[in-house]
Structures are given as structure tokens and as C-alpha cells.
Specification:
globular, 94 residues, single chain, two-stranded antiparallel sheet, mainly alpha, 9% strand
Length: 94
């Protein structure tokens, strides 16, 4: 399984190969720091079924890609939007 972003694709069993945005490191808010510390080193293998690993990966994605304006683009093309509005899956015909 993977997470597709406009600028990259992240394997859901992979490490993020991007540095944390400098404005988000270090974490200043003490409550957020405590929360993120719980998931810093997710126990066990990189298993998407593990809640701790999912939270670890999600927090890393948010912190690494937050400054990227590419993530503000519409995730669907115009033809895909038309398929969605017609209540069809845009990728089903592929």
C-alpha cells in the first residue's frame, strides 16, 4: 500500500526520506511534544496495521510536507472530477 502525494509516493512500510520542516522542529508546545514522543519510535516492524506505526508515519508526513504548496493543489483532474460528480469511480475504467 502507498500514499500518493502530488510530489511523491510514500510506501506505507517505508521511512520518510525528507527532513522535518525547520519551523516544525523542535516542537515547542509541550502537550504536542508528549503526544509525538509516544509515536516517535513505533514499536515492532513497520506494520500499517499497528496504530503506533500509523500515527508515527502520519505525524512524519505532516511535519515533513507541511511547507509544500504542492499539497494545496486539487487532488483530481477535471475528467476525474466529472466522473466523481457522475457518481462513478474515476479509475474504475482503467
Amino acid at each position: 500500500m502507498s500514499l500518493s502525494l502530488p510530489i511523491t509516493t510514500i510506501g506505507l512500510g517505508s521511512d520518510i526520506d525528507r527532513k522535518i520542516a525547520p519551523e516544525l522542529d523542535p516542537i515547542i508546545n509541550p502537550e504536542l511534544r508528549v503526544l509525538l514522543e509516544r509515536f516517535r519510535d513505533a514499536p515492532g516492524e513497520k506494520d500499517w496495521a499497528s496504530f503506533a506505526y500509523r500515527m508515527h508515519l502520519i505525524s512524519q508526513v505532516f511535519r515533513a510536507f507541511q511547507p509544500s504548496s504542492d499539497l494545496l493543489r486539487c487532488p483530481f483532474s477535471l475528467p476525474e472530477i466529472e466522473e466523481i460528480e457522475a457518481e462513478r469511480l474515476p479509475w474504475a475504467a482503467q
